[in-house]
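Researcher: Here's my situation. A collaborator sent me these components and asked whether they could plausibly form a single complex. I don't have experimental data yet, so a predicted model of the whole assembly would be a useful starting point for our discussion.
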Amino acid sequence: MKTYSVVIVDGHVLLSQAIAHLVDSFEEFETLYICNNGQELLDKLKQNSVLPDIVLMDICMPELNGIQTTQLVSEIYPRINILALTADEDEHSIINMLRAGAKGYLFKSIEKSELEIALVDVITQGYHHTKNVSDVLIKFLMGESESKKVNLKQQELQFIRYVCSEMTYKEIAKSMYRSPKTIDGYRDALFKKLQVKNKIGLVMYAIKHKLYTP
Amino acid sequence: MKTYSVVIVDGHVLLSQAIAHLVDSFEEFETLYICNNGQELLDKLKQNSVLPDIVLMDICMPELNGIQTTQLVSEIYPRINILALTADEDEHSIINMLRAGAKGYLFKSIEKSELEIALVDVITQGYHHTKNVSDVLIKFLMGESESKKVNLKQQELQFIRYVCSEMTYKEIAKSMYRSPKTIDGYRDALFKKLQVKNKIGLVMYAIKHKLYTP
DNA sequence: GGGACAAAGCGGTTTTACCCTGTGTGAAAT
DNA sequence: ATTTCACACAGGGTAAAACCGCTTTGTCCC
């Protein structure tokens, strides 16, 4: 008997459809609908009177990404269980997704049987954490993690994006309408804050943390 | 009637399984087996006497990636039709995949009906090219593409990876057992060859072209 | 062998990056 | 009203990066 409804949110339609098939093949679950991005999910939730029991959410999506969407949805509809389902296996994504309110984090490299277990778990227990994810969480709690939430100001974000272009600091200063010495200050502050020693470090940080997309 | 067999190669098991479901839902196609990476595909092809009609191949995979695998398989088993099926939409991947012998290039953002059309096409016509892919091909042939195959020497590859770390040229010189001045030469040569003006440009090139993974 | 040519290596020079310390100025806190 | 703090900015110095031109080395071809 189909008792629980699932919504799938993934930027890649073919994958959404394929996963929908898979979900429908499970005893107790059925796909309610699929969405291409976070905005579409919000719209559908507003329109439909029937709320899903579970949302399977990818992270990498155009417009509204998985983390932002999770944050919004879990605030407005706390009864919906959101499970991350993504290829993104890095620490930051996991931490941020769980912080945003996800009830579990699944890699796309799991077996379909594990997906079913996760779905059942989240219904019966309210969460599902695999070993990999637990390890990251523990590492994080132990303070061994580098994800100590560094929050960057708008200005610093803009600066770091300029650094990723081939501009010199002098050129960046012009573009940002600041004195070159001020730019020196921005740089030094970021070096300290992000624990890097030069421009290259900044660029790598920006790319790893998706502040800049090559 | 199930007449044509399909093999799916994708680093993410859940996706392979989901797509397999989808393929099995099509009239004329059925999944023969799935593989987690290129090496596994080569092994299976060697072991089994029955060869698949079509291989759906992802690019991003551990060990042997999709492009390398396609090259090998299309040389040894020219009768197998390889279709790229990937989230990777950049020009380089498309060009390299087709150069390696793929009979078509599908984005994971297509509809499942399009997947079926592509499978039928590749059986009846021997290829399937969507508009997006054709556009890239034309652009490439017109010489407007930046993919003008710059081939880098082993030395230059190693150097460019060092540059992506936060090392100075002096440190790189030590690591590569070369004089700092020689390293200067490597750098200048690469600046010219890759049309960049500084270290940052090199780093961006390396990342865009997957010479270095952050 | 010797000339043509490209790549590797090297010295000197200028520009940029990096680092430390310090000043003035507003806005918020006490 | 003064303390505090964040911010824009400056001077001045060293190290590194980037650019130029020159010599050496090796290879290919007559």
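Model: Some features of this prediction you could bring to your collaborator: The beta strands of chain A are 4-9, 29-35, 54-57, 81-86, 104-107. The two ends of chain A are 48 Å apart (CA to CA).
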